[in-house]
Amino acid sequence: MYLIINIMFNDKQCLIASWYISCDVQFFIIGVFIIYVYTKNNKYGIRLLATVVILSIFIPFIITILTKSEGILKIHIPFLENPRNSIDFNESYRASYMRATPFFTGLAMHFIVEKLIEKKIKFSLTTVYSSTLIVTVICLWIQYYGAIFYDRQRPYYVLEQALYLTFSHCTWTVISVWVTIFNYTSSYGFLEKIFNNRFIVPVGRLSYSVLLINLIVMAMSQGSQRSPNFLSFISLLDAGICGIFKTYLISLLLYFVVEAPFDDLTKRMIWGKNERKKSPLWKKVQNEKSTIEGSSNLGITNV
């Protein structure tokens, strides 16, 4: 229970990025309820999910206007010294109701992609690459637009701040949505072979654990030094390689001990064994997995 409510009532976190675990737990609870409603009545479930997604987009916009808060979390030296003392971080950045859009949009994507697969909608490779490039450029431009807010002489415009906060929270979500649709309905050509190989896929599963651990590993590595060091290119390269190795090693242990067991438990609770296998999206994923594993086994046999 402490893990669920500490995001709202406590500013003490054991990990720098662990505030998002509390957000995730809250999202999971709401998500399970939405899926339960969907299993009882598909139309009501879709309407409820659509309502939650719309609210998750507009709530940050409205709160920013009402509180006249900043639309971006500025990384200044006082923030780096103690992030938890930042008002913007505690009230605007890490609050679950300000971060809900990616989770519930991802939940909605399951139903959208499943319908697209059922209708056998396909896109040409040119459309896939060109539209993905355009969407990515636009989303990155929105992210980089936030640099202008660091200008101390720039006047505060509440509408600009609210719009930026709303759009910047959706940029990575939009890119992920775009890639997900094309990945499951069409193809990314040679890029699929790169990102679906037997090395990238397991590493990708550690991304959430890496998010939680990497800052702690860097802080421990730097904090353990007892004398100033000259940061040459070689020393930075050595520190980077060492930090990456330690981060992924700890993340691997965290994944097997915590994330993987609970992920499997969640899937069994929500889908069960038989119902999930009836899903077109599930069949699509399993077919891709079989293809990857078959290619991997063929490669091992040839060697």
Automatic annotation (TrEMBL):
One of its GO terms (molecular function) is acyltransferase activity, transferring groups other than amino-acyl groups. The keyword Transmembrane applies. Keywords: Membrane, Transmembrane, Transmembrane helix. The gene is nrf-6_17. Residues 8-255 form the Acyltransferase domain. The keyword Transmembrane applies. It comes from Melanaphis sacchari. The chain crosses the membrane at residues 14-38, 44-66, 128-150, 162-185, 206-224, 230-258. This is Nose resistant to fluoxetine protein 6. It comes from the Eukaryota. PANTHER family: NOSE RESISTANT-TO-FLUOXETINE PROTEIN N-TERMINAL DOMAIN-CONTAINING PROTEIN, O-ACYLTRANSFERASE.
